[in-house]
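Consortium newsletter contribution from the modelling node. Members have asked for a concrete example of what our holo predictions look like. Here is one, prepared for the 6-O-phosphoryl inosine monophosphate complex that several groups have been discussing at recent meetings.
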Amino acid sequence: MPTVVVVGSQWGDEGKGKITDYLALEADVVVRYQGGPNAGHTVVVNDEVFQLHLLPSGILYPEKLSVIGNGVVVDPEVLVDEIQRLQARGRDTGGLRISARAHLIMPYHRILDALQEESMGERKIGTTLKGVGPAYMDKSARVGIRVGDLLEPDVFTQRLESNLRDKNRVFKYVYGKQTLDAQPIIESYLQAGKFLKPYITDTAVLVNKAIRQGKKVLFEGAQGTLLDLDHGTYPYVTSSHPVAGGACIGAGVGPTKIDEIIGVVKAYTSRVGDGPFPTELLDETGDWIRETGHEYGVTTGRPRRIGWLDLMMINYAAVLNGLTGIALTRLDVLCGLDKVKVAYAYKRDGQVITEFPASFKELAECEPVYEEFSGWPEIDPAAKSLDDLHPNARRFVEFISHKTGLEPAIVSLGRGREESLTLRDLFQ
Ligand code: IMO
Ligand code: MG
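And here is the predicted structure:
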């Protein structure tokens, strides 16, 4: 039975929350597999807006299982707050399951994130300051503390004290900052552990069992391909693996168990944080798209950098993820523009480049080669086929398919759940 991975094909903020929520209607289980509270997923249900950071977007369907997999880094304070906020809005969170193997973001990770950024000055990454990078660093260094440790006070206390000895040395001698006391951290984390206990389990067992039973499992990507630690625009990336392969590691399922991999593609490009951006629009059109599309970070409130759609990037994402289709979002935001451009190649030193460059210096020197389209005045939110779209919008969609070799499986027609056009049933 089908399992579907939804992945970001750009630099994050492609509309993964909306697409996941829409596909979750049919799924039995929704799994977040990597990243942490650096994600900001917006879901609109009957005009009610939900902004999720750690909770999988499936959480808005009470009867489904929503899994936070082992690959996610969990800040218990953020998670408890998110659960309580949903409960206060009358939402049932009983379907949540959290991997005992997921690593914890600790208070010192958040502080280190800020200190590292500060000390890099001009060369800073522009992180979300949620402690995500330092938490993954500790995981790789094999000194991380895991969600399951919250349920074993002795183990938690011993690991925390040992970590804190090291971190406090760094705070004091490297950065000349105040050290942290263990006790308040122990108290607040064990308290959060009590609250989270009913949700904590071995989620890999659960997800594999669901797959064996023929249930429909949806893997919800966070961040995007170009933010991947290995494949993204390093060093301006996150510290984990948003690509589809990350779903296997971060949820504990074998690669042979994945059937469909859908890349979410926004009709234009956005990026938060620093780093090269070939199709960036530093003009009024960029400002107009930012305002019309409310392109401000859900997690940090930062204005997002805006540019035209870049198919060099999408083709790169298609290969790295092994995409089987795309979900096109935010065509509606571009309504009313006279002209819409799409980059389909780069030029560097007068030469056409056909592969996305590995070096960020090279990428910064690339000039996009554009195809220009006449704009479309509107997108019918109730369109039932591509033929119902304005001819100019249809040409834009067809050009994307032509240049990527990928058909859209879903076209988003607006923010709401129902404003979506399905062209292929992914769970068939
Ligand atoms: P969603 O899931 C957009 C970016 C940050 C920064 C870099 C590293 O909403 O698409 P980090 O805090 O992860 O160490 O920051 O990655 N970044 C995102 N940008 N959307 C996201 O998530 C992001 N998560 C991280 O802005 O450039
Ligand atoms: Mg975001």
